[in-house]
Design a protein that fits this description.
3-stranded antiparallel beta sheet, disordered N terminus, mainly alpha, 194 residues, 9% strand, two-stranded antiparallel sheet
Amino acid sequence: MMVFHIAGSCMSLRHAILGLLEYKPTHGYELKRVLEEGISSFWPVNLAAIYPNLRRLEEEGLLTHRMEASAEGRPDRKVYEITEAGIVELAAWRRLPPESSGSTRVPLFLKLLFAKPENMRDALDWIDKAIEQNRGNADQLRSVLHDPKAFDSFFVRFMRESGLAHTELQVELLQELRAGVANQIEAQESRQEG
């Protein structure tokens, strides 16, 4: 999602799912939407892993599902609910200290570290793309910041606002980086001309 990616995680997808289901029973698509819009700003989510995790959690007895009729012509939906065992698992997880998030990995920085003078124009393109991506991420976060249909609590709003602030800071830092690289290119070209 973002240029800056935190290696590791401070919570597992299984606990995120259980936490959302403790808040309210819901179907898989809604879980995916809430995880994508509400949590991915501070914790990258592998959305493809949601349904396998739901199956595993159900096999472990931590959640259950019921079928709910959908609109006419659409297939019925599974609505997932947390079980008592799931509530106990979530409570045990809440008492544990957060795992270390590990190191910050920024692929762009690695590219820049090993860039040669002849790659500096490419570097400007990479930085411009990162700025554009982060502006898009910021726009997306702004659009869901106060979405009345979204999973909403003080913490979710705080996390969205934090994600937005982090993304806007990334844009500022990338703009500074771009200016520095552009200055290097200009100095290099001046030396070549002189």
